[in-house]
Structures are given as C-alpha cells and as structure tokens.
Design brief:
2 copies of one chain form a homodimer.
Chain A lengths: L6 H16 L6 H8 L3 H7 L3 H25 L5 H16 L8 H8 L7 H23 L5 H22 L3 H22 L4
Helix pairs in contact in A: 1-2, 1-4, 4-5, 4-7, 5-9, 6-7, 7-8, 8-9
Chain A binds a DNA duplex (18 and 18 nucleotides) through helix 3.
Chain lengths: 197, 197
DNA sequence: GTCTATAAGCCGATAGAC
DNA sequence: GTCTATCGGCTTATAGAC
C-alpha cells in the first residue's frame, strides 16, 4: 500500500518472469536484479537469499493460478463433467501459447528434487493441496461418495498433462486428459447414484 | 566388448547417478569427472559437451526402464486391469526407496524447458513414446476399440503420479493412479465388448 | 587416451558509503 | 534503501605434454 512503485514487487515480478521462462538454476541473481532495474545489493536487502526469492516467485503465483481454474470452472455451462473437462480444454489453449513452459510449481519441484524441505517446494505442495481440496469440495457437493479419491485422480491427470505436454509439446494430451477426467467423474457419479461404495 | 573397464561407460554411469540424484544443472562436469575417477580433460575427450553427457545419461536409462515395466506387467497374474494396476503398485514401492527422486526423463524436460530442441529432451520424448506404444499394443491385443486414446490416458496417469509423488513425497498417489487406470481400462473394455465406439 | 594446468568468466553473497 | 565495488569460489571448456 505504498505510494511509490514497490521495489520488492518489481524484483519478484522480474524473478517470476525469468524463473518461469528459463528455470530457477539457469537464472542468476544478477539477471533478476538487472531485469528489475535494481542492483544486486538492493535485491539482497529485500531477500535473504536466492532460495527465498524462488519461494517468493511461487508464492505470488498461488492465488492467481487457483482463481483462474475457478473461473474456467464456473464460466462453463453444463454439468460437473463438462466443467471439469473445460479446465483441461482451457489449459490446452494456454499451452499453445509460445511462452508456455509447463507448471511452474512442478518444474521447481523437479529442479529442487535434491532439496526436499526447500521453502519453495512447501509452497508448491500447499498450492497443489489447495487445488485438490477445491476439487474435493466440488465433488462432495455433487454427492459423490469417494470425492477425495476422485479429486486425487483428476489432479493426477492434470499434473500428468503438464508433464507430458512439456515433454512432447503436444497440447492434445490435455484434451485426452480432460476426456479421461470426465469419464472418471461420470463413473464416480453413477456409482454414487446407485448407492454403491 | 572391450576387455578393460570402459572409461566412457564409467563416466556415463557416474553422470547417471549424480544427475538423477542432484539434478543436471546442480551437478558440474568436475563432479562427474571426479566421481568417475578421470580428469575433466578425459571426460571432454569422450563427450563434446555437458549437453551430450546429459543425453548419454538418459540414453542408458531407456531400455532398462522399459524392460522393468514389461517385467512388472507380465509377472502379474490376472487380467489386463490387474496387470496395469500392478505397474503403479510396483512404482509406488520403488518410490518409497529413499533415493527415489521421480522420473529422470521428466525432470530433465522440466530443467531444460527453455531448450525445447535439446538432444536429451528428444531422447526423453522418444522413451515416453515407446512406453505409450507398448501400452497401445497391449490394449489392441485386448481388442479395445480406442487403444491409442487409452494408452495416452494411462501414460498421463503414470507421469502425473511421478510429478505429484515427487512434490508431496506421498507414494499412495501412485496407488490412486493405478485405481484410476484400471477403471479406465475396464470402461474401455466394456465399451468395446458392447461394440460401441 | 589420459594427464596437469589454466583460461575467461559467472556464481551467490557481502562491505561499506551515502 | 539504494548505491559502487568486490570477495572467494566455482563454471564449462581448452592448451599442450606424454
């Protein structure tokens, strides 16, 4: 809420752009500072370390990301199958953008696989849990018996499509994942209606 | 087939261990050379660049990896659903090993997301296509109508479970993925028997 | 084919002035 | 809070001897 352009925010914004585009280990602190228009010393005034900056990068992406998924869901006409499938279709559209490079959270967790307790990984894990919980609540509202398992299955298809499309650069995999997700939702729904476990 | 311990093989073996354990950008050429017991100059005699070494690392993992999946599949008693599910159950067991750090192919593609044409990414893409083709052939042999789509769906669940388990360090997601995969196979099988598209 | 030695520069992080 | 200047170490890759 300061009146002047916030230096910290400019640094995080520059970091987000570079880290997502190039990868966190490929981008130096120098490069982030230069892109933000500050010196490295200023950057280290606002952040204790590069690791803290990486965590800040993912933290600013948390809410906007979840909000976008919710938007795609609610703005779609039809039943819950159609709404879930629409998430994947919208994601496929996003993946066709030349600057798309997968899921920032998953890429950081892959890059930092040798540092399991890293703050950025915690933020990524929390983000994905929030998404899974959101799905679970939706399925519970639909009176689906094992909403928790179904939410996990849809999450697995979503994160799988991030990984596969990043590798093959073929967004049609996201549509395949959407079809699979819709099938699983339908199956769970039919089981619940029949009163089965 | 040389009689003496092959220097090139020792280098690739050391690289594989370190790259998988720490990440490709986190490991220096110096570290690989030292682990292999050769000097950096010798390493650069056998490999033109670090990029070529990364590609070699994934290349040696291609066949053993596919062979393991086939082994898990054929050694499982029961129908195709049980066999597919067994892949995920075996993977969950592997993921519980303390040294497990996800899928090497996917992690490289995440680390090199800014270099789409990198030789190592091509090798990873080819590897995953081989796996997908193997699944497709299995489903075709089961007379499943859209074997291609089903193979892609199972692949998406598999790679999704790699990504999610790496993030949460919770191998039960692999069992959830296995359940989902079995459900999708069963669904496709029932559709094919009924003669539907 | 393997070695020693080193180039040339970038890395994360810091000292101290203002 | 932002600057200039720089530390010590590590980076990929190479020159030239044997």
């Amino acid at each position: 809420m300061t009146a002047v352009p916030n230096t910290r925010e400019r640094i995080v914004s520059a970091a987000a752009k570079l880290f997502y585009s190039e990868g966190i280990r490929a981008v130096s602190v120098d490069a982030v500072a230069e892109a933000a228009g500050v010196t490295k010393r200023t950057l280290y005034y606002h952040f204790e370390s590069k690791d803290e900056l990486i965590a800040a990068y993912l933290d600013v992406r948390d809410q906007p990301n979840l909000k976008l998924f919710r938007k795609w869901f609610v703005e779609t006409e039809g039943d819950v199958m159609a709404k879930v499938e629409a998430i994947f279709r919208n994601l496929a559209r996003a993946a066709r953008h030349p600057k798309w490079k997968g899921c920032g959270f998953l890429r950081v967790s892959a890059e930092l696989a040798n540092m399991p307790g890293h703050p950025a990984i915690r933020i990524g894990a929390t983000h994905k849990k929030k998404f899974e919980d959101w799905l679970r609540q939706i399925f519970e509202a639909e009176r689906i018996a094992d909403a928790e398992a179904l939410a996990r299955q849809v999450l697995l298809l979503l994160d799988g499509s991030f990984a596969v499309v990043l590798l093959h650069r073929d967004p049609t995999y996201m549509e395949t994942a959407g079809t699979a997700a819709a099938s699983l939702v339908k199956l769970a729904l039919s089981r619940s209606v029949m009163g089965c476990r």
